[in-house]
User: Fold these one by one.
Assistant:
Number 1:
Amino acid sequence: MPTKYAAELVLLAAIWGASFLFMRSTSAEFGPIMLITLRTGIAALVLLPWLILQQHTGLMFRHWRTITIIGLTNTAIPFCLFSYSTLYLGAGYASVLNATAPMFGALIGFYWLKDKLLPVAIVGLVIGFVGVLVLSLSRQHTEIATNWLPIMAALAATFLYGLAACYSKRYLQGVNALAIATGSQLVATLTLAPISLFFWPATMPGIESWWQVIILGVVCTAFAYILYFRLIANIGSAKAITVAYLVPVFGVLWGMIFLAEQLSLGMWIGAGLVLFGVALTSGLVNRYQTKPAV
C-alpha cells in the first residue's frame, strides 16, 4: 500500500477512534438520542451538497427503501446504543467492543448469505467472544446494571452493523457508497428527530459540548465517510476495511490521554483476544501469511 494511503488509513482510524471520545464527553449532557440526532443531522447537511455535486441524488431516491433499512440498522439504532454504552464503559472500552462487528458480519453472512466460513474463522469467532467475556468479567467490581447492560447494548450495536453489512451486500451491491451514506444519515435524522423532542436536556449543554457535537458530525461522520470512500476507490474495500483493527487502538489512546481512562490487565487481555479473533474471522492473518508464488 502506498505511504499516502496508509497515512489516510491511520488518519481515518484516529478520527473514528475519537468519535468514542466525543460520545463519552457529550452523551451525559445531551442524552444518547438527542446527541445522535444532532450528529446525523449535521453529517447529512455536510454530505448532501457533496452528493448533489456528484449527481447521485437520483440514485439515493431510487433505492430509498433499502437505504432506509441501512439508515436504521447501520446508523440510527447502533449509534444510539453506543452513545448509551460509552456513558458507562468509557471510550476505549466501547471502541474495542466495536471491533466485534466483522465477527457478527461473518456469522450472519454464513447463515443468511451462505458465505463460506473457514475453520480458522470459526476459531476466530470463539476467541473473539471469549475476549468479550474476559472484558465483561474484568468489570465485575461494578454493579450488574452498570456492567452488563452497556456491554449488551454495544454488542447489539455491532450485531446490527454486521447485519447492515450483509444486507448491503445482498441488496445494494454496486450502488454508490456516498448515496448510501447520505441517505442513511438523512433517514436516521428524520427517524430520531421526533423521538428526540421527548429527550431534550433539562439543562442547556455548554458551548464546549456543542463544539464537540459539531466536530462529531462534521469530522467524525461526514468527513470520515468521504475519506473512507476515497480509500475504497484507491486501495479497494478489502484493504480499506482493515481500519476496523486500528480504531480501538486510537479509541483506547484518546481515552487514556484526554479522559484519564485506565484499562486493567484483564481488559488488555480481553481486548487482545477480541482483536486477534476478529483478525482470524475476517481472514486478515491468513491474508498476510499466504503470499502468491512468483
Number 2:
Amino acid sequence: MTVERFVVSDAAAGPYGLTVGPDGAVWFTLVHAGEIGRLAADGTVTRCGLDAPSAGPSLITTGPDGALWFTRMRDHRIGRISTDGELSDFPIPTANCGPYGIAAGPDGALWFTELNADRIGRITTDGNVTEYPLPTTGAFPSMITTGPDGALWFALNQANAIGRITTDGEITVHPLPTEAAAPVGLTAGTDGALWFVEIGAGQVGRITGDGKITEYPLPDRAARPHAIAAAPDGRLWFTEWAAGRIGSLAPDGTYTAHPLPVEAAEPHGIAVAPDGTVYAALELGEIARLGG
C-alpha cells in the first residue's frame, strides 16, 4: 500500500480530527492553532482561522445540511463551516462541558459528547441544543457515531464501557470485559456491529446491537490505538498513536500493519473515503493518504 504525505501545518498546529466532506475534500481540525483546514484532491491546502485561536477544534463531521460541523473543546461551543468557508458557532448550555466527539444523527440533528460534564448533546442545524445526562460520573464520553440500529453509540473512556442513546434520550451502558481498556474511537461497521479501539489495552473491540462484545488484542499492546473508521469492503482502519503506524483489521480479526514513512508521526484522526482511500491526521503537521 502506498503512502502519500501532505504537509498541512507545522507540528505546533496539531492536525487532529478529519473527515471526507461532501465536496470530496478532506476537512480537518488544527486543535492547537484554532483552525479548520481543507485538503483538496490535488493537494491544495486551505486553512480558516476561528474567532478564538484557543477554541480547541477537535472532531469534525459532515452535517445533514451539507456543511462541516465540529466541536470546540476548549471554549465549549459547536462550530460549523460551509464548504465555501463561512463560519458560525453555537454555545452549549452547560459551562466548561468540553465537547469532543460529534456525528450526524438519523434525526437530522448533530449529536456530540461532553467530556467534562457526563452528558450527550444534540444540536439542530439552527443551533438548538438539548443535553442528556449519563447514568455515570467521571465517564469521559469521547467519540460518537450513528449505529445501524438508528441509535447513537459512544465510547465512555473512563467508565470503561460503550454507551448507546436513542433519539428520544434512552441510555444503555455496556461495560467492557477488559479492565482499564479506555475506549476512544468508535465506528459503525459494514457487518451491522459497532467497532471501537481501546487505547489503554491495545485492542480493537466489536459490539453487537444486543451488547455482545468481542475483543481482538493487537500484536503491539502498547500501540495506543486512538481512532477507527470502517471501509466499504468491511475492513477496519485505525491509528496506532504511540507506534506511529496505521493498523487494519479484516472482519475475521486478521491484523495488518501499515508503517508510516516518518518518525514521530503521532497519527490521531482517521477517515475512509467512499472509494476506500484512507486518510490519517498526523500531529507532526501532515495528512497521510493510503491507497493502492
Number 3:
Amino acid sequence: MKNNKIVYLAVATALGSLSTTAHSAGFQLAETSATGLGRAFAGEAAMADNASAQFRNPALLSYLMDTQVSAGGIYVNPNVDIDGQNSLTGPTSTDDVAHDAVIPNFYFSHQLDDRLTAGIALATNFGMETDLGNDFTGTQFGNEAAVTTFEINPNLAWKATDQLRIGAGIRYVLGEGSIGAKSSITIPSGMSPTETIIPKDTTLKYMEGDDRAWGWQLGAVYDINDKHRVGFNYRSEVNLTLDGHAEGLSYDPIEPQRHLSGSMDLTLPATAELSSLHQLTEQWAVHTSINWTEWSSFDKLEADIPSLSSDPQMVKVENWEDNYRFAIGTTYQWDQQLTLRSGIAYDTSAVSDQNRTLTIPETDRTWLSLGAGYEMTPQLTLDAAFTYVFAKDASVKEPRDGITSDKDGSDFGGDFEGETTGNVWLVGVQASYRF
C-alpha cells in the first residue's frame, strides 16, 4: 500500500469538526446558541438578543446594555445511514454513523461606556465524531473519525454613530482529532499487497494530532431606521497543523503498531454572513441571512511524515466547493414576557456527487426550527428551541472516478457504491442574565 494512503481520513475530517453530526455545511457547526436555533439562525449578524450575538457579529455587542452573561447548550441527535454494494461481498450497510453530541457555549459582555462594549465568547465552529462499524464493508476507505475544537474569542464593539456600529475580535482555536481505516475483509496472501494474509479489521491507518492557531473576525451593523437593520460579519480562515502520530499497515507493513511522528495541514475556511432585521409591527419581525463559506480552500490533504519521506505526501484529493446557506425567520412578541420564534433554512452541499466520500457524506440540508424565550425576571431570560434537519439523499462512491489516490483502498476490501440518507434532531436551551 502506498505511503500516500497515510490516512485518507486522517484528515478528511481531521480537525475540522462535527460534519455529519452538526449537519451544517462540510464539517462546520452552526449551533452557537439556542436563541438563534429557534429561528434557524436567520438574521444572526443583525440581531442582538443577548451576549451570544457577538460570536456571529462582534458589532452587535454595542446594542447590549450593562453586563450580561449567556450560557447554554445544544443537543444534536443525528441519524445518518449508508447503504450500498461492495464489489467483492455484495450488499452492505451501516446505521447511525454519526454520534450524538452536546455543543456547549458561554458568552459575556460588558458595556465600558456609551460607545465601547467588550465581550468574550467560548464556543465552537467545527467538530465531529463518526464510526462506520466493523461490519460495514467500506471501512477500507475509513472507519472512524473523532474531532473536537474549542474557540476563545474576545471581542470589542464601537458605536461609531447613532446608525453605524463596528466590531472586531481575535479567535484562538484549540483542536484535536483522530481518524482511521481498517480492512473490511480478510485478504489472502495471494491477493495481498504485502504478500501475507491480512485479517479482517486490520488497522490500515490511524492518525491523531492536535494544534492551536489564531484567527480574527470583523463585523458591522447599520440601522437604516428604527425598523430596519442590516449586519455583516467576516471570519478569517484558521490554519491548523495537526501534530501527532500515525500507525498502521499503510506506514509500516512489518510493524504496523509502531508510532510514526508526523503532521498534516488543515485550513478551517473563511466565512461571511449578510443579515437583515425588519420590524413589521410592534409584535412581528422578519429576519434573513445569507452565509458563504470558502470550502474551495479544502482542495487536497497532504501529510508530512519525515521518517517516510522528506516531501509532502498526498493523503486525499477533496475538490470541495464554496457553499451558501439561505435562512429566513420570524419573531412574534406574544406579550411582554413571551417571545416566539420560527425559521427555515437551506444549506447547500460543499461537494459534488463525484467528490462525496463515506466519512463525510456531505449533502444539501433543509432546516425547520421553532423556539421561544421567556423573561422570568427583568434580569433573567430563558430560551429553548427545537430543529429538525432533512438531509437530501445522495449517492456515494469509493474509489471516485478520475482520482488515482483513492484506488489503493480497493485492495483491502473492494469498491463501494451506494447512497447516504439521514436527518438530525436538535434541542437547545439558553439562560441569559443582565446585571
Number 4:
Amino acid sequence: MTRFTIASFNVKNLIGADKEYYQFQSYTPEEYAWKRDWLADQMVTLDADIIGFQEIFDEESLSDMITLADTYGEQHNEFALPDSTKRYRKRAIFDKLAYGSYREADLAFAPNLNDGKPGARRPGVAILSRFGFVGAPEIIQDLGRPLDIPFSDGGEDGGFFRIRRLSRPILKVRVPIGDHVITVFNCHLKSKLGEFIRPDDGGPAPEADLTKYDPVGRALGSARAAMRRMAEAWVLRGAIVQELQAGNPVIVLGDFNDAENAVSSEIISGEHPFKNYQWMLRHDAEHRGDRYSAEDAAQITQDIEAVRLHPAEKLFVRKSLRDMVFTAAFGGVYESIDQIYLSRHFLPETAGNIGEMDYFSVLNDHLTDGSHAEAPYNKLASDHGQIMAHIQLKGDAK
C-alpha cells in the first residue's frame, strides 16, 4: 500500500517585503517575516506530499517559505523523534510525528499572464510535489484564439460571451506515485468581486464610487464576474474530461471561489446522473411513449459517471458524520470555497479503483469573519482554511 496526502493552500498575497502588489498594499519587512513564519508553520502542520498553492506573486517568496518550513520541520524532528540509542525509536507513532522534508521536492510555478506593474500585480499558482513530476508542467491561461460561447433566443441569434484568457492560470502536472501517474490540476477561478469597466480616460469605474452607490451597476459587475468564473470552469472541465477519457486518474484542487453546489463547481465536477432515465422522453421522440430503454438508461448513467468528479469534503462528511467544514468566512457567511475533487479512480465502490481517501483534514481555526474586529490579522495570515485529503493507493498496478 502507498499512502500520500494532497493539500490546497491559498496563502493570500504572497510576495516579498516592500513590493506593492495591489494599489497602496505591500508588506513591511516585519510583516513579511511574520507572514512567512505563519505560512511555514502551517506547512509543517500539513506536511503534505503534494500542495497546490494559490495567490503566489513571485516564485522567490514561495521558495523562501518552503525553505523556512523545512528548517522548522527539521527542528521539530530533532525535538520530537528519539535518536538511534532509544529502543523504542521504531514505534509506529514516531513515523506519524516525523516531518518529511521538501528539499528534494519539485516545484512548478505558473505566473499570471495578466500580471502588471507594481500596484497592479496579478497572482499565479504553484504545485509542490515530493514525488516529482512526469513530463513538463502545463499552463492553461491564454486560449490562443477567442472562445465564443453562443446563446440562442427562441431559435434566433442570442449573442455570445467571449473569453480570450483566464483571469488566473490553471496548472496541470502529472505526479508519479507508486506505479500510478495521477493528473493534478490546480486552479484559482475568478472571484465574486464585481468586474467593472473603466472609462476611456483610465479613471475608476463609476460603480466603484460607493459615495454614489449604484446597486444595479454593481449587480452587473457581479454578473460579469460570475460569467467569467463559469467560463473558466468550463475550460477546466474540458481539460479534465480529456484526461479522464484517456484513462488517467485525476485530482482537481484549488480556490474555486464558489461552494460545492454552485453552478461553476458543478461544471467542473460534471453532471449528477438521474436515478432512472427510462421515464424521460427520448431526445428524438416522435410520440409520448417514445422513452429511453433500460439499456439506454444504463449507458447514459455509465457515460456520466465515467467523467464525473467527487468532492473529497463530501466523501469525508458522509464517512465521518461531520456536519460542517468551512474554508472561508466573511460577512457572517461560512462556506467551503476551497475544494479537492477526486475522479472515480479513488472511490471504494468503483470497480478497478486504484485507492481511496480515508481521511480529510481542514485547518481553519485561524479564520475570523471579515466583519469581526480581529479581521486585520488575516492580512498576514491567510483568509482561507487549508484542506488536505489522505489517500491510500492499492498495491502495485498490474
